[in-house]
Amino acid sequence: MNQKLPKPSKLIKPYCVKHGKDFLLKDVNPADTQGLDLKDEAEDVLEKDIQRLSDLQQKLYAQDRWALLVILQAMDAGGKDSVVKHVMSGVNPQGCQVFSFKQPSQEDLNHDFLWRASKLLPQRGQIGIFNRSYYEDVLIVRVHPELLQKAHVPPSLVGKEIWKERFKAINSFESYLDRNGVLVRKFFLYISKEEQRKRFLSRLDEPDKNWKFSENDVKERERWDDYMEAYEDMIRHTATPRNPWFVIPGDHKWFTRMVVASVIVDTLDGLHLTFPRVDAAKRKELNRARELLTRESR
Ligand code: ATP
Ligand code: MG
Question: Over the chain, what is the mean pLDDT?
């Protein structure tokens, strides 16, 4: 099929939520591909984006001013690992760190809910990827409020406003990061319940994928509607113009990866990164070094 790919801005726009207030999950179709059937072409586009990302990351690293925090949230089998593997494949490991947020440790639980994330933030010049994040504290913890007790939160602070209070805390945290040069880009890879069923079945059927399956995933799946409500409310309260949510259709992995890569490239492009130029004193130093090295060969 000979279809043309839309410009990156057009590709991204439908999924970018900057004003959460009006967001409804039902307005996004997890199987959406913008009418494109470009599986093969998508690989080429992704390849180009990966190359571009690699260039941009070198400049980000050399400039040592900005940091990028990429947050990936999804239901189980939503494709987070595949995004990390493919989209970040061209990035120099020196300038990128991936952290997976599993169940919190005893030490994590003995602190406020942003504590473990704040220790893992990317430093200037780096891209940090959170595979799950502090958003679990308004998702799984909301679906299973008994987890609040495990986290030793004083009962007098567990009122019906607790989720709104957590959203406010997250918004303050992220705008603090933004004002300190850490760009936060949040992705919800949105798969349908049917697609999750298919992916679980393939984890059961294909021996090489068996290790990915956990019985607990099926239990969480029973709470699908509660999770979707929690995701929707979370996005409604934490999508802001400076720290938007990207709700990316997840049923077609090729499309998901292509859009996520576009968003990351577009974000870094927006920084107009350049390699630092040396000043006069440094130039003199370089000239002296050149002279010494040239003399050596005579
Ligand atoms: P995979 O896609 O390979 O299954 P995963 O991200 O689901 O990767 P798991 O080890 O299967 O990794 O699951 C991690 C679990 O930890 C998830 O169920 C997640 O909801 C849970 N978790 C993460 N953060 C918290 C938290 N703050 N409180 C309670 N549970 C959490
Ligand atoms: Mg899992």
Answer: 94
Question: How remote is the CA of residue 157 from the centroid of ligand 1, in Å?
Answer: 25
- Domains in the chain: how many in total? 1
**Closest residue CA from atom 10 of ligand 1:** 102
Q: Is residue 1 part of a domain?
A: no
The reply to whether 2 falls in a domain is no
Proximal ligand: closest to the CA of 153:
1
268 is in which domain, residue-wise?
10-296
What CATH number has the domain bearing residue 173?
3.40.50.300
4 found inside a domain: no
Buried b or exposed e, range 117-152, using 16+ CB within 10 angstroms: beeebbeebbbbbbbbbbbbbbbbbbbeeebbeebe
209 or 232, which is more confident? 232
Q: Among 132, 152, 215, which is best to mutate for testing ligand 1, by the most ligand atoms less than 8 A from CB?
A: 132
Q: How confident is the model at residue 1 (pLDDT cuts 50, 70, 90)?
A: very low
DSSP H or E run through 215: helix 215-221
Helices 162-179, 224-238: crossing angle, 10 deg rounding:
50
Pocket of ligand 1 (CB under 6 A): 76, 81, 100-104, 132, 136-137, 140-141, 147, 212, 214
- 265-270, long-range: CB < 8 A, 24+ apart: 265/8, 265/49, 265/52, 265/53, 265/56, 266/8, 266/9, 266/12, 267/68, 267/183, 267/185, 268/53, 268/56, 268/57, 268/60, 268/68, 269/56
State yes or no: pLDDT of 251 exceeds 80: yes
Asked if the structure places residue 5 within a domain, the reply is: no
Average pLDDT over residues 143-164: 93
Query: 3: pLDDT confidence band, cut at 50, 70 and 90?
Result: low
